[in-house]
């Protein structure tokens, strides 16, 4: 994890004093940092201002890109046998592994079987994600097979936990945690040049990160699939984590937290909330990395140099901590982090990170992109969407869903491969790049894990509610069953391929409430009709259009969502531009020269530069454009097929199409435009 190159508040003060700056001469004591005071947990729930519907109350309707993505992922998950997902756990517990061979060894397989090669130090993580995804599929789709497989895995993992003893459950032994304890904060021993350091002198990869995935999987199987045994297994794991972390001094625990630990605190807070036992929240508090949260609580962006996906889960944990305690320090951490990442560190698709890090100060994205071809890790978008849900529930501002929609439509829908359900790791924005994917059973990266979770809960945030009524935040064809009110809402259309959506109401008895339609920031000129009659109200982009009435069966709301071409320039380079149509980012089709399956599948990112053991593609000419006017519609014209466009009047014209529909082609998203 790259936490170096950072100047803490205190060391900055020391530097300033050393330089003889005026502030040093005032001899002021620096104010204490927000988290210098002890963190003491006291349960006090903060009332949400808006709540999402349970996934069991919303179903996607066939025929949309969201439904297709759900089905591709469901197919992929159904092909992975429980025995294979359990193999390394059983091997670690010394239980028979049955007829399964686990997953193939070698290559870049994070879940390879632990015989012979020894396995990776992250083994078991995907099984945790798979449990979460199985619970999601049950809740979102009523998928009996997914639930049965999830239940079977919980029961078998419980046997592994029983055999291992002490509540511990993992596919690797506790010796990884011993190394984490011994080597965190310890001086690095001298190294022999040219030789890798011995394992016992190396910090483990990320043992708490991995254990968190399993704990979260158990929590989700309990929460979404009603599996009580999963809560027992989780409680045992939490007991183990509580004992382990409680035996360390706070200073040493802070050193331990320099190794990636996922959302340990989030799951412990969730457990505290679900069981009304503060003990788990107090254990969760030990996973607060103070030097990360202190500047955020002071609304300072000191994120440069940090590993992105290590830290977004820590912010989700902070959000959850605020919700169950009202401690505003945690609120401020989440609120500021979200603001600085989404306004200053996010590309046009909603993705963030570059080579897994933030390498430049905020709003230097053009410079940032030049440092690596491996931009926008998919896990980061998964976690940012999760964080958005928390912030929106505190303050239901439709602008949160402008970001959510942008990320969902471009970076999530566009990164699962049709038919196979294989998913991406990095999404590259280097001109001439192409989308790369995992393969069936030889990768199981972090993003494969968050991928199976994401595409099994695409119904999650379409509709929200409060005491006044309903929010419609996403235009995803779906049906809401608001059983408490005897109300059903069916949303049809083919957004974003169609520029409208239609809502039809079924009400057991007439229901007075507000129906609030999000008017996207890009949808200027949107109109709304109720039962065929145009509303005499302006649908202001970036707001809600609220319709207060007594709703009855057969009521029909039609909303137009007019799309137009728009341009988004890099904040640090006005000539580096991307184009959108409505919420959809457009990519230029640059052909498929040099693309072969081995460059696409089993690759985390495109081999545009030399990569060890990977062939690289021929360089191709990347067209540059001169804009034929401030409005891109002046020189980017519709193509023959729906949602296709082409440039005009350029030295070399290019076909443009939605980034989310482009596969197995080389592309550019950003262009040099004069
Ligand atoms: Zn990832």
Low-pLDDT parts are 1-24
How far from one another are the termini? 39 Å
Q: What does the main sheet amount to?
A: 8 strands, antiparallel
Rounded mean pLDDT score: 94
Our Rg estimate from Cα atoms comes to: 25 Å
Strand % is 5-15%
User: How would the global form be characterised?
Assistant: globular
Q: Which class do the helix and strand fractions yield? A: alpha+beta
What's the total number of strands?
A: 20
Bound small-molecule species: zinc ion
Number of helices: 20
Helix % is: 25-40%
Short description:
This protein is an alpha+beta fold. The protein has helices at residues 9-18, 22-25, 65-78, 82-93, 125-141, 144-164, 175-183, 207-225, 228-246, 250-256, 264-275, 278-285, 290-297, 308-325, 328-344, 365-369, 378-394, 399-412, 446-454, 597-600, and strands at 51-52, 58-60, 463-466, 469-472, 478-482, 487-492, 500-507, 511-519, 528-530, 533-534, 543-551, 556-560, 565-570, 573-581, 584-589, 636-638, 645-647, 655-658, 667-668, 671-672. It has 20 helices and 20 strands.
Give the arrangement of secondary structure elements.
Layout: H1 9-18, H2 22-25, E1 51-52, E2 58-60, H3 65-78, H4 82-93, H5 125-141, H6 144-164, H7 175-183, H8 207-225, H9 228-246, H10 250-256, H11 264-275, H12 278-285, H13 290-297, H14 308-325, H15 328-344, H16 365-369, H17 378-394, H18 399-412, H19 446-454, E3 463-466, E4 469-472, E5 478-482, E6 487-492, E7 500-507, E8 511-519, E9 528-530, E10 533-534, E11 543-551, E12 556-560, E13 565-570, E14 573-581, E15 584-589, H20 597-600, E16 636-638, E17 645-647, E18 655-658, E19 667-668, E20 671-672
The structure holds zinc ion.
Zinc ion (ZN) is lined by residues 309, 377-379, 425, 445-447.
